[in-house]
Design a protein that fits this description.
alpha/beta, 13-stranded mixed β-sheet, two-stranded antiparallel ribbon, 12 helices, 17 strands, F-box domain-containing protein
């Protein structure tokens, strides 16, 4: 049945539209407009808070406005696996009009580990870990099964990290991730985007989280959980040592990778493991930040497989152990990475204090990038000295990245 069959033209209404011939055409009702125009009008009205009014007009506009409202209001949803959170999530999952619009699921939030899984009788094994086979986990599985379009998982925790046993009916973040990943693998769900961010303080780093063991990560990876992963982001001052390597080695379609640390031994151990992984993917975007004590040969071995595909490269706040290493690295990037369209190099250092040196580009701002062949002169590559001994920051985006890279190599120097 056409949507026009159950609606009546608005009295004395006249709407003007331009058809494909460019001529003005009068229509009696908004529902006589082309579908794409109706969608734009409804989306604008919903964003302006007029959704309830539209839903009262007719069945057709009620369906469209409800769909747009659900997309905005329920596209992203957060849960901490507590009783109250799961009750809400279950109500959304059972709503046939709302559940299909949940696309991104956030685990955590502005919470502490003690807030995860509160007020649920979790069954534990002899070691005190949450059992995977239990009614509460099966309930989570039934909920996630109804969110068929969830392909984006974000774990975001900003609270404190404590040691010792949790409160009654609560568990650690690692337990939550272990449950989530194994449940998604059971559902044969393929995750497209995975993000982990932890801005926490305390004495319990990621690598010590129970429930997120190498065995669990290997299991879900082998079962194809990351087979369609395109974007992987990890931002943490205390990252898990094993997880990035285990995810990456099972992610053949990975195209964007971000690893952002705050220096320290955890980041170094993580990168050492990642450098040893067989790389099954070719990246288009790579962002490395706060990675300490890298070897230039290891870094280039990691970058080399992406030389023909990498479009955007960001190396920030990194330290190499060899002398003159960053000059050699920049030379190789300029020579081999022909697909680059954007880059950023900032706070690059080498050597160990007190003899460490930073990369600077003196004279760069006074020398524009000129293309003699194409007859183009590009804007100056942005260069500025960061606070303290961090070195210069240079970035480029757009046409002429190859010329800009060569200019960087020409002016790169090391400074104490």
């Amino acid at each position: 049945m056409s949507h026009k069959a159950d609606t009546k033209p608005l009295p004395n209404a006249k709407v003007t539209s331009n058809n494909s011939t460019g001529k003005s055409v009068s229509v009696k009702s908004i529902i006589d407009l082309p579908t794409e125009i109706i969608d734009q009008i409804v989306a604008l009205a919903v964003n302006e808070g007029q959704g309830p009014t539209l839903r009262l007009t007719c069945k057709y506009l009620n369906e469209i406005s409800t769909r747009h409202w659900a997309r905005v209001a329920f596209g992203d949803w957060t849960t901490d696996f507590s009783a109250q959170s799961l009750n809400t999530l279950e109500q959304i999952a059972n709503h046939k009009q709302l559940a299909p619009h949940v696309k991104r699921l956030y685990i955590g939030g502005n919470i502490t580990d003690h807030d995860l899984g509160k007020h649920i009788a979790w069954e534990q094994d002899a070691q005190g870990h949450v059992k995977f086979q239990q009614p509460a986990v099966q309930r989570i599985k039934r909920i996630l099964q109804k969110f068929e379009n969830v392909r984006d998982i974000q774990i975001n925790q900003r609270g404190a990290v404590f040691t010792g046993a949790g409160l009654p009916g609560a568990f650690w973040l690692g337990e939550a991730l272990g449950i989530l990943f194994r449940t998604l693998a059971d559902l044969k769900r393929e995750v497209d985007v995975l993000g982990l961010a932890r801005r926490a303080y305390g004495t319990r780093p990621w690598q010590d989280l129970p429930g997120l063991t190498a065995t669990v990560l290997e299991e879900v990876g082998a079962r194809g959980l990351w087979s369609h992963l395109r974007v992987f982001s990890l931002r943490s001052s205390e990252p898990p040592w094993t997880m990035p390597a285990k995810v990456c080695e099972h992610a053949p379609r990975l195209r964007e990778l971000e690893l952002s640390f705050n220096g320290g031994p955890s980041g170094q151990l993580l990168m050492n493991r990642l450098f040893g992984v067989r790389i099954p993917f070719q990246l288009e975007v790579l962002n490395l930040r706060g990675v300490p004590a890298v070897h230039d040969d290891q870094l280039m071995a990691f970058l080399a497989p992406h030389a023909r595909t990498l479009r955007d490269l960001n190396l920030t706040d990194m330290r190499s152990e060899e002398n003159r290493s960053w000059v050699r690295i920049l030379q190789r990037i300029a020579r081999e990475f022909s697909a680059l369209q954007a880059f950023k190099f900032a706070s690059l250092a080498e050597g160990l204090p007190p003899d460490s040196r930073v990369v600077r580009f003196p004279g760069l701002a006074a020398n524009p990038v000129v293309d003699a062949v194409r007859g183009l002169q590009f804007d100056l590559v942005h260069s500025c000295r960061l606070h303290g001994p961090g070195g210069d920051s240079v970035e480029w985006s757009g046409e002429g990245a190859d010329l800009a890279l060569q200019k960087l190599v020409d002016f790169a120097v090391l400074d104490f």
